[in-house]
Amino acid sequence: LRVVKFRRTGESSRSDEDGISGEHEIQIEGVQTELEPVELEDGAAVPKEFANPTDDTFMVEDAVEAIGFGKFQWKLSIITGLAWASNYAMEMMILSILAPQLHCEWRLPSWQVALLTSVVFVGMMSSSTLWGNISDQYGRKTGLKISVLWTLYYGILSGFAPVYSWILVLRGLVGFGIGGVPQSVTLYAEFLPMKARAKCILLIEVFWAIGTVFEVLLAVLVMPTLGWRWLLILSALPLLLFAVLCFWLPESARYDVLSGNQEKAIATLKRIATENGAPMPLGKLITSRQEDRGKMRDLFTPHFRWTTLLLWFIWFSNAFSYYGLVLLTTEFFQAGDVCSISSRRKETTAKCSLTCEYLTEEDYTDLLWTTLSEFPGVLVTLWIIDRIGRKKTMALSFLVFSFCSLLLFLCVGRNVLTVLLFIARAFISGGFQAAYVYTPEVYPTATRALGLGTCSGMARVGALITPFIAQVMLESSVYLTLVVYSGCCLLAAVASCFLPIETKGRGLQESSHKEWGQEMVGRGSHSPGVTRSNSGSQE
C-alpha cells in the first residue's frame, strides 16, 4: 500500500483537543479503498478501517507539501520572473535613462527632471494598497492581470507624449500599474512547498537583474537611432507576452478555498499534481472558518499589530537606503571620493541648471556593472536565510550596510570606495529580498496580498524621500547624509530583531483567527516532513 505520510505543522496542524495525532497517513488517488490490513512499523497488522479513522481530510498546505516542487513550479517561476523583469525592473531602469535624455532634448530644469522619477514612485505608493485589496477580494490572478494590462497600456502611450506635462501624467499612471507587481510574489509563494519557498522567492531577484541588463542593452541599440519614444514602446512589449501567459496561470488554491470555491481549488491542485507527476491526497479538502478578506483592520489585530508596524518601517528603510545608495554612487564617482564632493560643489554652483550631457557608452557600461553588483547579495542571502532565519538575515543586511556607510567617512581612494559601495548595495538588495520572503509568510491568506501591498507602499514613501537626502542634503553636508542612512539602517536592524514571529520552517497561514495564530507561534519552530512509504517503510 503506497501512502503519503505528513507531519503536520503550523496551520496544517489541528489542536490536540480534536484528538488527532500530529502525524498521520492519507490515501493516494488510485489506491484501493476496500478494507485491507495496514502494516505497522512493529510488524502488526490492523484493519484499515481502524488504522486511521481521521485520514479523510487534508488542507491546501498538506497537498502543496505532498505534491512538492516540480514542472508546474518551474513554469510558474519563469512566468513570475517575466513579470518581475518586464513590469518592474525594465520600467524602473528606464528612469535612469529617460531623465537625462529629456533633460537635454526638452531643456528641462533639474527639478522637472527629478519630478519625472518622483511621479512614478507616487503612482506606486498610491496604488500598492489598492492592488493588495483587489487581490484579496477578487483573486491574486485578477489583480495581477489588471495591473499588467494597465502598465502595458500607459507604457505604450508614454511613447506618444507630445509635451512634458503629458509624459509626467502618463509615467505616473505607469507607476500606478507597477504598484501591483508585488502581488506576483503572493501568487508565487502560495504554490511553493515550504522548503523551496525562500530560495525560489530570492531567485526572482535574478530576473530583476536580467530585466535591467536587457533594458540597458535595448537602450544602447535603440537610443542612438530611434530615440526615447521607441525605447518606451519597445520596453512595454514584454508585458504583452506576460499578459498572454496569464491565461495559463491558475488562481491560488488557498484563495479559492478561503473564498468558498473548494471545487476550483481541488481542480487546481489536481492539475499541479498531474503536471508534477505526483500523487494527490484523497479525502475532503478543509480550511479554517470563512472570514472577511482584504480588510485593513486585520493588519492591526493584537496578533499582527507590531508585526505590521515594524514591517512598514523595515520596508521604508530598505527602499530609502537602496535608492539612496544608487543616487549617492553617481555623486561619489563623479567627485572621485567622498572628501572631494564639497569642493566639486563649490566649483559647479555657477553652472546653469539647464546644462546637460547625453548618456555615453561608458555611462551604459557603468549602469551594467552597478546592476551586476546585486548578484553577490542574492547569493549570500540565499545561503544564510534558511540557516539563521528571516529576521536575522534582514538585521544582518542592515548592519552591514550601516557599517559600510560609516566607513565612507574616511577619505578612501576610488578603488576602496567602489568596494564599499559594492558591498553595501549587495547587502541592502539581499535584505530587500529577505523582506519579500518574510512578508507573504507572516500574514494569513485573507490578508496576505494586502499586507504585502501596504509594505510595498511604505517602501515607495522611502523612495520618494531619499532624493532629498542623497541630492539636496548632500550639497550642504556629506557626513550628515551618511549619518542619516547609517542611522536609519541601524534602527531597521533593531526593528528586524524585534519582529514577534520568525517564519523559518513554518507553513503559510490560512486563517488569522486567534486560536490558529497562537498555534502557529507554538509550532513555528518545527519543520514539516513529507515522506512516502511502501508497506510502512520510510524513505
Automatic annotation (TrEMBL):
Gene Ontology molecular function terms on file: transmembrane transporter activity
Main localization category: membrane
Membrane-topology annotation of the record: Multi-pass membrane protein
Subcellular compartments: Cytoplasmic vesicle, Secretory vesicle, Synaptic vesicle membrane
Keyword Nucleotide-binding among record annotations: no
Domain Major facilitator superfamily (MFS) profile: 77-504
The keyword Membrane is annotated on this UniProt entry: yes
Transmembrane domains' residue ranges: 76-99, 111-134, 146-167, 201-222, 228-249, 303-323, 393-410, 416-438, 450-470, 482-501
PANTHER family to which the protein is assigned, alphabetical: MAJOR FACILITATOR-TYPE TRANSPORTER HXNZ-RELATED, SYNAPTIC VESICLE GLYCOPROTEIN 2
Family as reported in the entry's similarity comment: Belongs to the major facilitator superfamily.
Name of the molecule in the record: Synaptic vesicle 2-related protein
Organism field: Eubucco bourcierii (red-headed barbet)
